[in-house]
Design brief:
mainly alpha; two-stranded antiparallel ribbon; 2 domains; 495 residues
């Protein structure tokens, strides 16, 4: 490993963090966007390099200031964190490249530097959460990304975004407070904040009530941040009223980061130390995952606002991820981590398509897109591909993770068939709400004629995402390899 490679975990966070204040100083139109895009692409390249390294063997560890853990701050990238880093940096890069004109239409020139600075802080915060091996620094980066996300959600012209942001802020603050209380309780009992050291020391005090309370606080707090049913109430409005490109970015990666931290804590710290916690983890999350899948899909079927429809669909997709994790098996965890990646591809593609459509149509309700497929055939064809991946049609990325989830369910001695039926029924429910969009766009009568068109760059990026949905459905080697390795890592801390 050369000198530069050794610093990659730190550069993953430092590059966007340092560029954020620099972007604020750029006043010429388009320069803040160009700087943010270049930074995001560099972060994506770093994430790709880290993924290649961890696929070949052991995780990459970096000690800030050469202070060894547990006394110093440690950064670490393994297969699980590499997969999530690819999602975060890839989503940021794709949405920034494709969303230039969409953002320029709603963000004034004087606000542009601050908007893209907030974007880079959100990127740096989420990357910091993923690479940090220290519980308190996870909290610090969590707050950085959350505060920046609030700015992004409220950054558009839609005034309805302000109460949505306020609800997002309140719920996010409660979740972060719960997490911090849990970390404080563990620190009180163990005297350490390093996750690896915490895993060793929790074993000595595992039967103490503060540790049990900490497990509850951390799990509930992160479940709220991850929008796990029924703690999802902030998500629909935040996704609906945020600028379209911001929605595409956050829908692809924001909840995935909180799910990542939840898996880290439960499998690294709690399940191997607390007697019966694996059962409690499953008993707590599986019913919520099932309810999230059913309720999220059911509400989406009756929504007429397409962004709100897809927001409730995200609640269902988070349910799939947690269902796989709650099985606490290699196949189940592979399905869960793989679906983080595949859902980002599918849902990010659909929100990018909506961003393109709204630059031509009057809004994003079903009646607004009636007949629009005749004017925007390429955009809606890409939307259909992303929708098929969301459903889990064979030949798409979404099918691979659902297939693994079905196999994980069939491995159960009892209840496996019922879970398979649930997955199939919910997939049919997804067919219903995706079909409603297709029906309106392809068979509806347009309400008005317009000469506007979607930006070519956005259509090109949209099709790149659509092709990725097909490509990773046919050749899923990269995400599947990372997911399988991640599952082994998680289970290795339980057994």
């Amino acid at each position: 490993m050369n000198a530069l490679t050794a610093h990659l975990p730190a550069l993953q966070v430092i590059v966007p963090m340092l560029m954020a204040p620099f972007v604020v100083l750029l006043r010429a139109r388009s320069l803040p966007w160009a700087a943010a895009t270049a930074t995001s692409l560099l972060a994506f390249a770093i994430a790709i390099q880290l993924s290649m390294i961890v696929m070949g063997g052991s995780p990459v560890t970096y000690q800030m200031g050469s202070w060894a853990a547990p006394y110093g701050i440690e950064l670490q990238v393994d297969a699980l964190s590499a997969l999530v880093l690819l999602v975060i940096t890839g989503a940021s890069s794709v949405t920034l490249i494709g969303g230039r004109e969409s953002l320029a239409a709603i963000i004034s020139a004087d606000r542009e530097p601050f908007f893209f600075a907030a974007w880079l802080l959100a990127l740096a915060g989420m990357a910091g959460i993923v690479v940090s091996a220290d519980a308190f620094n996870i909290f610090v980066f969590m707050e950085i990304s959350s505060l920046a996300s609030y700015v992004l959600v409220a950054g558009g012209p839609d005034r309805r975004a302000l109460p949505a942001t306020f609800k997002y802020l309140v719920m996010g603050t409660i979740g972060a407070t719960f997490y911090l209380i849990g970390v404080g309780l563990i620190y009180m009992m163990t005297g350490t904040l390093n996750l690896a050291d915490m895993e060793l020391r929790v074993h000595e005090v595992a039967d103490q009530k503060p540790i049990l309370a900490a497990a509850g606080f951390i799990t509930v707090g992160l479940a709220l941040k991850a929008a796990i049913f029924p703690l999802h109430v902030w998500l629909p409005n935040a996704y609906t009223y945020a600028p379209h490109i911001v929605t595409a970015f956050l829908a692809a990666c924001a909840t995935k980061v909180s799910l990542y931290v939840l898996l880290r804590f439960d499998f690294f710290v709690f399940q191997g130390n607390l007697v019966g916690h694996d059962f409690q983890f499953a008993a707590y999350l599986m019913p919520l995952a099932i309810m999230g899948i059913l309720v999220g899909s059911a509400v989406a079927m009756f929504e007429r606002n397409i962004k709100r429809m897809l927001a409730f669909s995200s609640v269902a997709q988070i349910g799939y991820i947690m269902l796989g994790a709650s099985l606490v098996t290699a196949t189940g965890l592979t399905a869960a981590t793989l679906h983080m990646f595949n859902h980002a591809l599918a849902k990010g593609g659909m929100f990018l398509a909506i961003a393109a459509v709204t630059m031509v149509a009057a809004g994003c309700r079903l009646n607004d897109v009636a007949g629009m497929a005749r004017r925007m055939p390429w955009t809606f064809a890409a939307l259909v591909v992303a929708g098929l991946s969301l459903i889990g049609v064979p030949g798409t990325a979404g099918f691979i993770s659902k297939w693994y989830l079905i196999n994980a369910a069939l491995e159960l001695e009892t209840g496996g068939v019922a879970l398979v039926a649930l997955i199939l029924i919910s997939s049919l429910m997804a067919v219903v709400y995706i079909w409603r969009i297709i029906e309106a766009a392809y068979f509806g009568e347009p309400s008005e004629q317009t000469t506007a068109s979607a930006p070519p760059a956005l259509v090109v990026i949209l099709w790149a995402v659509a092709i990725a949905n097909i490509g990773f459905g046919i050749a899923p080697d990269l995400p599947l390899s990372l997911s399988q390795t991640a599952a082994d890592i998680l289970l290795g801390h339980v057994q």
